[in-house]
Amino acid sequence: MLKSIIIKHYALIDELIADFSDGLVILTGETGAGKSIIIDALSLILGGRASAEVVRTGAEKAIVEGLFTIAGNRKVKSLLEENGLEYSDELIIRREVSAKGQSRCFINDSPTTLALQKHVGELLVDLHGQHEHQSLLHVENHIDMLDNFGGLNEMVNDFQSAYKKLEDLTGELRETRQRERLLLENREFHAFQMREIDAIAPQLGEEEHLESELRILENAEELFGTTGELYQLLYGGDRSVHDLLVKVQNKLNDLTGIDHQFEEAVKESGSALAVVSELAKSVQHYHSQIEFSAERLEHLRERLGRLALLKKKYGGSLDDVIAYREKIGQELQLGENFTEVIEKLLRECEAARNDCALVAQCLSSKRQGVARKMDKAIVGELRKLGIQNGKFATRIRQVELLSDQVSNRDAAAHYIKAGEMKLRLNPRGCNAVEFFISTNTGEEVKPLARVASGGEVSRIMLALKSILAKSDRLPVLIFDEIDVGVSGRVAQAVGLSLKDLSRFHQVIAITHLPQIAGLADSHFMVYKSDDGSRAITSIKKLSSDERVREVASLMSGEEVTEAGLKGARELMSVSRDN
């Protein structure tokens, strides 16, 4: 429910704060006091259009903030979590409009998009009146309302499971056919590429090994000379390191005879001598193995050149070339099995389409029966609300697809067979649902979405909401001057319908009729004052005595007499009894 609203610097409002309760919330006030301004401001945080004209003269920006309690509202919770916003049992929606016309949106103090704010608003509030926020006037919502009224949502869920399976299978079939087409188009080219790569037959790690060998061969002369020189320095020369170390060791042995402290040095010199001898052997062995082969050098250079060409044509590295060869090899092999795979998918698609058709046709049949019951119930409600000659018709139709549409593979999942016909599918079955209405004798029913706005539309909405109340999950319903053109017994019927609705929703209604105001669970008066320089719209929650006086004023005018107060008490008492 809407727990509170704060409006600052909006049109005639300087600063307005109102705390609302659940049940039936009534707003009254003189014409021009600013009641509709409050509703307009509320529509702003529900994603309505913003304009710099709403900013109060002299202010930098207008601010509207609503606090909603949303405990248990799973749709809102999912939407917030999908968009990375924290969820709690209370939700703050704020909209700011600058004097330059720039608009900013916030949900729980986090900046957000207008689209998301509007989506959240559509899950919280249904606003009826001079505004566009009217879910019942959106044809796409009619099928949901019919299913809610008939308790068909479980069957709809069954259909959606079957529909998703069909979509998944047809998507897989479409992708498989696409791959088959591409493979057939590229078959000869891929076969040529495979032959080219296989002719060279690159191996993993081959390039590094070849480059290492090439580097050695290209530097064989330097390696031969340097290793020979090293051997002479270490062992073979007249003053080699080995011979010098032998002399060092002999001298140390002599010193050991004088002082035993040199024994450790003798051991270390022996170790150094052994290391030098081993190093000399290793260098000599390497030196003896060096061979220069011009043929081998040419072979290495040619092989690396061929590998370089493969890399240039098929990938940035030899690993990429080998991976590409494996890929096209698998695709060519798969191409030989496409016929079998496609035939299997076609059989699975046909079975899934039959499952969809079974549930969709059952849903369609159920909807016909539900529609007749709903039409009758709505006509009854319209009569209670003063539309005595109203007619209401829920039209359910199936859309046949033309042959050229069915042949389009992108639409393959979106039809079922019904005899010789092919019917278009949507996520709720094979039906398109639209409400039609006539409110005058002799007139044919017309689409509800085209009915002119005003009090009559509001009463139509009220009739629909009255029978859909138990299934509708929108927590807040707002009616802006639903009483236009009604009075007397009809006014009382409108009030009782609103009161009945308030058992399932929080209902906020602007009214001029005492019969409706007398039923309020909480009553607010909107009034306009003048501070000497400009007009200001304010709001006040009325006490019990103030409520009686306001209802009396609605009955008898500005001058309230004792008789008027008595009449107001009686009306409020009678209204409550009803």
Instruction: Write out the CATH superfamily name of one domain.
Output: P-loop containing nucleotide triphosphate hydrolases
Q: Number of DSSP strands? A: 17
How large is the radius of gyration? 44 Å
- Quickly count the helices: 18
- Strand content is 15-25%
- Assign the CATH class of one domain: Alpha Beta
How far the N terminus sits from the C terminus, by CA atoms, comes to 25 Å
Q: Give the fraction of residues assigned to helices.
A: 40-55%
CATH architecture of one domain: 3-Layer(aba) Sandwich
Category from helices, strands and their pairing: alpha+beta
Q: What is the CATH topology classification name of one domain? A: Rossmann fold
- Biggest sheet strand order reads 2-1-4-5-6-7
Rounded average pLDDT: 86
Most strands sheet: 6 strands, antiparallel
Described by the principal axes of the CA atoms, the overall outline is elongated
Low-confidence stretches: none
Describe this structure as you would to a colleague:
The protein is of the alpha+beta class. The protein contains 18 helices and 17 strands. The chain has helices at 35-45, 74-82, 114-124, 142-150, 153-200, 206-218, 220-236, 241-258, 263-289, 294-314, 318-335, 338-384, 403-406, 455-468, 488-501, 514-517, 544-556, 562-577; strands spanning 2-10, 13-19, 24-28, 61-69, 90-98, 103-107, 110-112, 125-128, 391-397, 415-418, 421-424, 432-438, 446-447, 476-480, 506-510, 522-530, 535-541. The chain has a six-stranded antiparallel sheet with strand order 2-1-4-5-6-7, covered by helices on one side. A hairpin with a 2-residue loop joins strand 10 and strand 11. The longest helix is centred in the N-terminal third of the chain and has 48 residues, at 153-200.
